[in-house]
Design goal:
This protein is of the alpha/beta class. It is about 40% helix and about 15% strand.
C-alpha cells in the first residue's frame, strides 16, 4: 500500500485555489517540516548543556541524539491519522462537504458508528499508538511498568506537544489501542499510520534504536524542542510557500525531494523568532579594588573562582533591597550565564510594578552582558495579552530615561513578532516579569513544561523571594528542585536570611543530587552563599567585611488622625522648601483622596499620584517621571511628595528623605522604609490609619506591639533579628491574659491559613524531578478542583483587567466606543464583527481585584467573549453624569474613571 497524501495535516489559513477549493497541507509534509525544524532548533537554539542532557539519557553521541530528536518531532502529529480528526466538522470543506469525506466511502477507511464520536484528541491518539510501534521496532519496554522504559516515555512526551501529557498507556491497551478508542480506526487507518511512521523514519535517516532511559531533564528538553518545532512548522504564511500541487502523490521520491525543501525552509522559520544568536559575553574583570569590603566587591572577587572550580549553580544573596544588591545579583548572573553557555536571562520580581521599575536596569545590564541580537519582553499580568506591545508602551513611557521606542531599536520586538504571544514570550532572550511566570512551570497548567524548557537555557534571577506568602514559598522550593535538575543557573536575592532561605538552598541541593544534611545561609547581613548544580554541594565564601551603606532607620509611630499626621510630618519639608517624601495609603481611593487634599492644603508642595488602578500607560509614564524626580541625584525645585499604595513597596530607584505609611506587617513596612535614604532613614507609621483588608490581623497587631511608639534600627545588622522578633512568643507573654488570648487566637488562625495554603500548594504542585518515576502524565495531572480561579489565588489575589470605554461618534455620525475620551483615533471598532485587537487594549488595561467586580457582567459582545486572550478582560461602557464624571454602575458598585485612575465605591 502506498502513502495516501490526501490525509491532511494543516488547512486553516492556507487560502483557496483558483476553483475555490481550500488548500490543505498533506500530513506527511507537516511531519517532515517539523522534523526539519527540529534539526535547526537542535543546532542553533539548544545550548550545549541541553544537548548533552538528551545525549546522556539516550546513551548515544550528539549527532545520533540530534537524529532521534528530529525523527520523534516528525511523529508528533501521527495521531491525526484518525477518524475524528480527518472527518472533523471544522476540517476543510468544498461544496458544503468535507474534503476528506471521500475517505469514508472507501472500503479500507470504513469505520464503526462510534468512531466519529470518539473524543480522543489527536495528541492522545499519537501517545496511544506510538507506544506499541516503538516496542515493535525494539525500543526498551516493560509490561508491568511501561512508564519506566523508553518506548512509553517517547510516546508520552510526543502526546504532550499540545501542552498536556496524557496518562500511562498500559500493555493491554497498547497492543490494540483501537479497541478502547474506535476513532483510531483499523484497516487503511492503521496501515497509513505505519506507512507514515516508516517514511518519516527513512527520510530523516534513523537506522538504529536507542537503549537509554528518559530522564526528567531530557523529557523537558525534548518536549520543548518538539513543541517549538511544531509551532514554527505551523506558521501559515510559510506553509503557503510549500504547498504541493494537486495530485502530488507522496511517493518515496516525492518525499525525498520535499525533505530538501523542508530543510531549506527551516532556518528561515527559526530566524523569524528573534531567538538566534544571543549569548553571554565573558565578564570583565572586577572593577572593585582589593581593599573594598562590601557585598558587590566580595561577590565580584569570589563568584568567578567558585564557578570556574565547581561550574554554574545558585548564588543566594541576603541584604536589604537596594540598587547595589541588584547590581551584585546581575553581576553574578553574568558570570553564571557565560560559564553555562546560557542564551538569556529572566528577572523575576514579586509584582508587576516592581518589574516595570526594574526593566531599565535589567536592560542596561543586557547592553553590557549579552552578545548578539537579543529581544526584551515585559512579562506580568498586565502585559500578558501582548508582551511585545507592552514592552513598546513601557519604552515610550521611559523615553526620558534614555530608552527609545523609535523604529530600528533592536531590543524590543515589534508588535507582530512571533514572540508576541503568552505561551511563547518566555522564550525571549531577556524577560523582566513576575515570579508567577516561574511558579506556573511547576503547576499543572497548560504548557508548564514549555516554561521549564524556556528557562533551561537561561539564567534566572529571583528578587525578593520572601514576598509571595505560603503558597509561593512552597512552589518556589519545587521550582528550585527542577532548576537544579536542569542545571539552570539561579541567583536569589532576599532581604534577610531565615529558615525559608535555608529551605531554598536545600531544595536546589536536592534537585542537583546533593546530600541531605542541613544547610544555612549566613545570618549576618549582607551575606551570600553558593551551591553548585553539578554535585549539589554548598560553598560558603568569605563574607563581606562590612556594609558600604550602613545606616540608622528611625521609626516613629503616631496616634493622631491620619491626614493630620501626614500634614504634620510633611510640614518641615514644606517649610524648608526642599525634600522628597512618599506617602503610602491602603487603597487607590484613599491615595486619590490624599492627593487632592495635599494639593489643596499645601500649595507649595509638588504632589504626584501613582496607584495600581491606573491604565497601564498612565502608570508607566508616571513611574518613569518619578524615577527621574525621585532618583538619588534627582533635581527638584520644590518639595515633592509621591502618594501611592503598596504596589510600589518593591520598586527600586525611588529615594526619599521621609516615608509615611499606614499600618502594615513589619516586612512590608521595612520594604517601604528602605526607600528612605541617608545616614538616618525616617519612617512614620500612622497607627490610626486603615490597614489593607488583605493584611493578616495577627501580624498587624504584633508589628504594632513590637514598634510601640517607635524604635531605632541599625541597618543592615539588626534587620534579621527584627524580622524574627515580630514572631517571638515573648510578645504574647508580655500581654495580659484576655488580650494575649485574643492575639493567640489570631496567630492560630494565621497558622491554619498558612498551613492550608502550604498543603494546597503541595497538592497542586507537580512532582519533583526525582518523584516522576518515568510518568510525565504527573506533570499534567487533572485535579477536579484545579480551576483558573484556584491557580490565580495561588499566584496572588485574583485580578481581572478592566478596560473603560467612552461613547463617541465617527466621521459618519455612527456611535463608536473610544479608549480615550474624545480621541477618535482610539476607537475600539476597527476590526470585523467588533473583535478588538488584544494588543490595542494593552495600554488601557486596569488591574482590579476580582472580588470587586464579581457582580459586573460588562458589555463585551459575543465575539469578544469568544476570544481566549480577552477572557479575563472586563469591558465597561462608561456614561457621563451631569457633573461631568464618567461612571459605570453595577448592582453592587459604582466605577468612576478620571484622569487619576479608577475608583470603585460600594453601593448602599
Amino acid at each position: 500500500m502506498l502513502l495516501d497524501s490526501r490525509l491532511w495535516g494543516k488547512a486553516a489559513g492556507l487560502g483557496k485555489d483558483a476553483r475555490g477549493v481550500p488548500h490543505t497541507h498533506p500530513l506527511v509534509c507537516h511531519l517532515l517540516d517539523t522534523a526539519a525544524v527540529a534539526e535547526v532548533v537542535w543546532d542553533e537554539l539548544l545550548t550545549v548543556h541541553q544537548r548533552s542532557i538528551v545525549a546522556a539519557a539516550l546513551q548515544v553521541a550528539d549527532e545520533q541524539a540530534r537524529t532521534f530528536a528530529a525523527f520523534w518531532a516528525g511523529l508528533h502529529d501521527i495521531g491525526k491519522i484518525s477518524v475524528p480528526f480527518q472527518l472533523h466538522q471544522g476540517g476543510p470543506k468544498y461544496g458544503g462537504k468535507l474534503r476528506a469525506q471521500e475517505l469514508s466511502g472507501e472500503p479500507g477507511y470504513a469505520f464503526g458508528a462510534g468512531a466519529a464520536q470518539d473524543r480522543q484528541s489527536h495528541e492522545a491518539a499519537a501517545h496511544w499508538w506510538l507506544v506499541g510501534i516503538f516496542k515493535e521496532i525494539g525500543y526498551p519496554s516493560s509490561k508491568r511498568r511501561p512508564q519506566s522504559q523508553l518506548s512509553h516515555a517517547v510516546a508520552q512526551l510526543l502526546g504532550g506537544h499540545g501542552g498536556r501529557f496524557h496518562p500511562v498507556v498500559y500493555d493491554k491497551d497498547s497492543r490494540c489501542p483501537a479497541a478502547r478508542h474506535p476513532g483510531m480506526g483499523a484497516g487503511s487507518w492503521e496501515e497509513q499510520r505505519r506507512i507514515h511512521f516508516d517514511e518519516v523514519r527513512r527520510v530523516v535517516g534513523v537506522k538504529s534504536v536507542p537503549q537509554g532511559r528518559m530522564t526528567p531533564g531530557a523529557a523537558v528538553v525534548l518536549t520543548g524542542l518538539v513543541t517549538l518545532s511544531d509551532w514554527l512548522a505551523s506558521i501559515e504564511e510559510e506553509i503557503r510557500t510549500r504547498l504541493r500541487e494537486v495530485g502530488w502523490a507522496g511517493t518515496p521520491d516525492d518525499l525525498d525531494a520535499y525533505w530538501q525543501i523542508a530543510r531549506a525552509a527551516a532556518p528561515r522559520l527559526l530566524q523569524q523568532t528573534d531567538l538566534l544568536g544571543t549569548g553571554f559575553a565573558r565578564p570583565a574583570d572586577s572593577a572593585h579594588g582589593a581593599g573594598e569590603t562590601g557585598l558587590g566587591a566580595s561577590m565580584a572577587r569570589q563568584v568567578p573562582d567558585l564557578v570556574a572550580e565547581h561550574g554554574p549553580g545558585m548564588v543566594v544573596v541576603t541584604a536589604p533591597p537596594s540598587e547595589d544588591r541588584t547590581e551584585a545579583a546581575l553581576h553574578a548572573a553574568a558570570v553564571l550565564g557565560h560559564a553555562a553557555g546560557a542564551r538569556g536571562l529572566f528577572y523575576a520580581l514579586p509584582t508587576g510594578s516592581a518589574a516595570d521599575s526594574h526593566m531599565a536596569q535589567v536592560h542596561a545590564f543586557a547592553e553590557q552582558a549579552l552578545t548578539g541580537p537579543w529581544r526584551s519582553l515585559l512579562l506580568h499580568s498586565s502585559s500578558r495579552l501582548k508582551p511585545a506591545e507592552a514592552a513598546e508602551q513601557w519604552a515610550r513611557a521611559n523615553a526620558t530615561d534614555g530608552v527609545s521606542a523609535e523604529p530600528g531599536e533592536e531590543w524590543a520586538p515589534t508588535a507582530n513578532s512571533w514572540l508576541n504571544s503568552h505561551h511563547r514570550a518566555l522564550l525571549a532572550a531577556l524577560g523582566t516579569g513576575t515570579v508567577d511566570e516561574l511558579l506556573q512551570a511547576v503547576m499543572p497548567v497548560k504548557f508548564n513544561v514549555m516554561r521549564l524548557f524556556a528557562l533551561s537555557s537561561k539564567v534566572v534571577v529571583v528578587d525578593e523571594t520572601h514576598a509571595r506568602g505560603a503558597w509561593g514559598q512552597k512552589l518556589m522550593l519545587r521550582f528550585l528542585e527542577w532548576a537544579a535538575a536542569l542545571r539552570i543557573p539561579v541567583v536569589l536575592a532576599a532581604t534577610a536570611a531565615d529558615k525559608s532561605v535555608d529551605a531554598m538552598l536545600a531544595a536546589y541541593r536536592r534537585g542537583a543530587g546533593g546530600g541531605g544534611e542541613p544547610v544555612m545561609q549566613p545570618r549576618r547581613s549582607p551575606g551570600w552563599s553558593f551551591v553548585d548544580a553539578q554535585s549539589g554541594s554548598g560553598h560558603l565564601p568569605q563574607q563581606p567585611a562590612g556594609s558600604a551603606r550602613a545606616s540608622t532607620l528611625s521609626i516613629t509611630v503616631v496616634d493622631g488622625t491620619p491626614y493630620g499626621e501626614i500634614q504634620t510630618a510633611l510640614a518641615p519639608i514644606v517649610a524648608a522648601g526642599k525634600g522628597r517624601a512618599a506617602v503610602y495609603r491602603s487603597t487607590p481611593a484613599e491615595a486619590i483622596r490624599t492627593f487632592h487634599q495635599l494639593a489643596k492644603d499645601l500649595p507649595g508642595l509638588d504632589v504626584t499620584l501613582i496607584h495600581e488602578q491606573m491604565p497601564n500607560k498612565d502608570r508607566w509614564q508616571r513611574l518613569a517621571a518619578c524615577r527621574s524626580t525621585f532618583a538619588p541625584a534627582g533635581e527638584v525645585s520644590s518639595p515633592s511628595v509621591l502618594v501611592t499604595t503598596s504596589m510600589l513597596e518593591h520598586v527600586r530607584g525611588l529615594h526619599f528623605d521621609l516615608v509615611i505609611s499606614g499600618p502594615a506587617p513589619l516586612a512590608d513596612l521595612l520594604a517601604r522604609a528602605v526607600q528612605s535614604v541617608g545616614d538616618r532613614s525616617r519612617l512614620v507609621v500612622l497607627r490610626a490609619d486603615n490597614a489593607s483588608e488583605r493584611d493578616d490581623a495577627a501580624l498587624l497587631w504584633r508589628t504594632d506591639l513590637l514598634l510601640g511608639t517607635g524604635r531605632t534600627v541599625a541597618l543592615p545588622e539588626e534587620l534579621p533579628s527584627l524580622l524574627d522578633e515580630v514572631y517571638a512568643d515573648e510578645i504574647v507573654d508580655r500581654l495580659g491574659w484576655p488580650v494575649a488570648r485574643e492575639l493567640q487566637q489570631l496567630d492560630n488562625r494565621r497558622m491554619v491559613r498558612e498551613g492550608r495554603a502550604s498543603g494546597t500548594a503541595r497538592w497542586l504542585e507537580v512532582p519533583g524531578p526525582r518523584e516522576l518515576d518515568g510518568d510525565l502524565g504527573l506533570l499534567s495531572r487533572d485535579h477536579p478542583g484545579v480551576e483558573p480561579e484556584l491557580l490565580s489565588s495561588v499566584l496572588g489575589e485574583e485580578t481581572v483587567h478592566v478596560v473603560c470605554l467612552y461613547p463617541g461618534r465617527d466621521l459618519q455620525g455612527r456611535t463608536v466606543h473610544l479608549l480615550e475620551d474624545g480621541v477618535l483615533e482610539q476607537r475600539l471598532e476597527r476590526r470585523a464583527k467588533g473583535r478588538p485587537a488584544p494588543g490595542q487594549l494593552v495600554p488601557y488595561l486596569i488591574p482590579v481585584p476580582k472580588r470587586l467586580v464579581e457582580a459586573v457582567e460588562g458589555d463585551a459582545n459575543a465575539a469578544w467573549r469568544d476570544m481566549a486572550a480577552l477572557n479575563n478582560v472586563l469591558r465597561l461602557n462608561l456614561k457621563q453624569l451631569e457633573d461631568g464624571r464618567w461612571v459605570y454602575t453595577s448592582p453592587k458598585h459604582r466605577f468612576c474613571m478620571t484622569e487619576h485612575g479608577l475608583t470603585i465605591d460600594q453601593l448602599p
